[in-house]
Amino acid sequence: MERNVEKMLKRVSVVFLSIGTVLMVIMILQTPKTCISPEAPLKPHTHFPRSTCDSSPRQHLPLPKKNARIWSSGAWKSRLYSFSTYFLRFRDLGFIQNHTKALCLSAGAGHALMALSQIGLSDVTAVELVDSIPLVKRADPHNLPFFDGVFDFAFTAHLAEALFPWQFVEEMERTVRRGGFCVVAVDECGGDDVRDIARLFHNSKVVDVANVTLEGSKKTSILFKVQDSPT
After folding, report:
1. Given its phi and psi angles, is residue 46 left (phi above 0), alpha (psi -120 to 50 degrees) or beta?
2. What is the CATH number that goes with domain 74-226?
3. Between these two residues, 29 and 201, which has the higher pLDDT value?
4. For the chain, what is the radius of gyration of the CA atoms?
């Protein structure tokens, strides 16, 4: 009796194994129903892979068209307007002019550079750890690839995010000429915090502090005038 049962179970196992093998072969050879035929007309919503089995390459926009799309967006224009309004104050106070040679550190996608250009500056350089062609060049703000005193004006809104703030500030001061200006925009703060930030600037003195709104956030803007380096 037991032998008969054992033989029957073996036969059943062989049958199920055979059925499973056949089904697996069919699944491998048969085109999934989720795939769209290569002859099917291209639709606007199928520019990217149309299904998990679509191996056709994605369509990439050329960089100029991609930038044009980004720069024409409402979000970009809003941030650009915010930076332009912010920098206009320094122009009105006489701290920057059209001939001012400016540097933007930790410049992100380049809003600050574009804003300075829009208000009339013709020589603006922006750097970030990751470049954003054509506005922002790749460079480490802690180790700038520029000679001493080549800029008239340096700006950053990301001092708080610097890995080594003292070195970041040291590079700002080094690359700005004597009599030039360094500007930092930080989260809105009071006197003690402003003094702590000012201590990082060994070769500069505070000439202007103002609470402003930048990119929709409340900030404190601190303007330093670069002095003689200690001998």
Report:
1. alpha
2. 3.40.50.150
3. 201
4. 31
